[in-house]
Each structure stands twice: as structure tokens, then as C-alpha cells.
Write a structure and sequence with these properties.
Blueprint (H helix, E strand, L loop, with lengths): L2 E6 L11 H4 L4 H14 L3 E6 L3 H10 L6 E5 L8 H10 L3 E5 L21 E4 L4 H13 L5
Parallel strand pairs: 1-2, 1-3, 3-4, 4-5
The protein binds 1,3,4-trihydroxy-5-OXO-cyclohexanecarboxylic acid.
Length: 147
Amino acid sequence: MTSVLVLNGPNLNLLGLREPEIYGADTLADVEAACVAHATANGFSVTCAQSNHEGALVDAIHAARGIHKGIVLNAGAYTHTSIALRDAIAGTQIPTVELHLSNIHAREPFRHHSMIAPVAVGMICGFGAAGYTLALDALIGHLGGTT
Ligand code: DQA
């Protein structure tokens, strides 16, 4: 079964508690359960991981080589700052769909720029927790559908 990685960055462990008016009421556990159900229903297996540490996220991308065919990445605030994450995606060449719960382009100017976008397959933002399954659909489609 083809495997994909859903990787969440800093502060996304606080989903459900954190600024719910922006990020919604679903917890990270809710989001991850929805990803597992959705991927499984489409014949894919999914591993979910989260870290607040930039280097750990780089390590997770490197470790995905040979295991996961693609990544759904919500890099949180590192989206806007991390050349290291961008280089990890470019270096591993693992197809990556960038995801944000909020519409980063409708928020503060410092959120408008993404370091990840130029090396991502594409980006989904602004659809809240539903974005995770939309991103999985986009990634699965990019990978050529079912296994
Ligand atoms: C976010 C948007 C980022 O700007 C922010 O730093 C986050 C969450 C989102 O999912 O909307 O932590 O990636």
C-alpha cells in the first residue's frame, strides 16, 4: 500500500485550543484521525507526525525517503522563515502539498510569503481542518490515484 506522511509543524499540537476563531475547534488528534480514515478509504496508508522543532521536521522529511511517496506539510510559522525546510523538500524530491488551515494571504503581510511554495506541488489554504483531506486528495491525485 502506498504510504504518505502528514507532517505538522510548530504550535499545531495546540489545535482546538489555539485561536479557535482562526484555526477552528478540531484538535490535532481529530485532524489526524480524519487523515487516516480518508487515506485508508482511498487505498493509501498514512503516517502522521508533529514537531515544534525545525530540525526535527527536516529529519522527518529526510526519513520519509524510501518510505512515503508524498507529504502533506503544514509547516506552521516555519512556512514563512525556513530555508532549511524548503531545502529538505527540494533535496529529497518528495512530492509535497503545502497546507494551511487559515488563508495566509488574507492575514498579516508576514504570512503572505511562503518559503515552501516554490518547491511544493501546490498549496491549499483557507479551508480549515477540511484542508487536510483536500490536500490528501490533491497529493493522491498527483501520485496517480490508487495504488
Ligand atoms: C498556519 C498559518 C501560519 O501562518 C501559522 O504560523 C500557523 C498555522 C495555518 O495552518 O493556517 O502556525 O500554517
